[in-house]
């Protein structure tokens, strides 16, 4: 377990520091956690018109009943007002998702934003309930997230939400689509494809998305990976 954890964090560090390609397919979370005594790395690059975000989110399940995520992002490009992030999150499951059933859990975390341009730092505390429904032996999955976030910058509380879907179109290949947002802001949309190159071990995905706006600066393209390490 310790060896796997060290390897995972070394991989995560190399992805962030060397600006390599990496990815997580959806912003809307599912009601699942990594297997007990196992780890995963979700990492991706998100490209906008004037800047790029490089993310790495390693996660482990050391005790069998909760998943701990610790990671963050690095921003490059013209738009340096976009903050880099550091994230720590704990997630647990109350009802396990099984084929043709449903699952529910809880995630809580802290996101630390730092903007080099405005020279400011702030912490957001958030939580959400992920719910997932399975159909046709896991060939179709529907995800719903409901939660909230306490914003340190303006001392506001925002309700957050997300609705996503996964449809298996070929063995180990899925079409994904989602919409997500928070109070008083326009929703965002994302769609793409993900594929297991090594089933339940190594996954790649490609997505494109936008925020509800005619401004091309709000459009993005992402490319990522998911690597599972376990017993």
UniProtKB/TrEMBL annotation:
Keyword Signal recorded: yes
Residues spanning the signal sequence: 1-22
Alphabetical UniProt keywords: Signal
Keyword Signal applies: yes
Protein name, per record: MetA-pathway of phenol degradation
Organism annotation: Polynucleobacter victoriensis
């Amino acid at each position: 377990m310790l060896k796997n954890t060290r390897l995972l964090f070394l991989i995560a560090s190399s992805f962030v520091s060397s600006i390599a390609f990496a990815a997580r397919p959806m912003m809307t979370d599912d009601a699942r956690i990594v297997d007990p005594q196992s780890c995963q790395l979700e990492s991706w690059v998100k490209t906008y018109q004037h800047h790029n975000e490089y993310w790495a989110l390693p996660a482990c399940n050391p005790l069998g009943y909760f998943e701990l995520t610790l990671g963050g992002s690095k921003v490059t490009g013209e738009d340096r007002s976009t903050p880099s992030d550091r994230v720590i999150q704990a997630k647990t499951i109350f009802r396990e998702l099984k084929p043709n059933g449903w699952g529910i859990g809880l995630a809580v975390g802290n996101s630390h934003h730092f903007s080099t341009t405005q020279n400011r730092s702030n912490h957001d505390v958030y939580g959400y309930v992920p719910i997932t429904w399975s159909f046709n032996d896991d060939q179709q999955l529907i995800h719903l997230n409901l939660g909230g976030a306490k914003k340190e910058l303006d001392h506001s509380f925002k309700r957050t939400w997300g609705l996503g879907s996964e449809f298996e179109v070929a063995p180990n290949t899925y079409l994904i689509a989602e919409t997500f947002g928070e109070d008083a802001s326009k929703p965002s949309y994302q769609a793409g494809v993900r594929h297991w190159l090594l089933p339940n071990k190594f996954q790649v995905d490609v997505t494109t998305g936008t925020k509800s706006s005619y401004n091309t600066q709000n459009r993005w393209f992402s490319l990522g990976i998911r690597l599972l390490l376990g017993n």
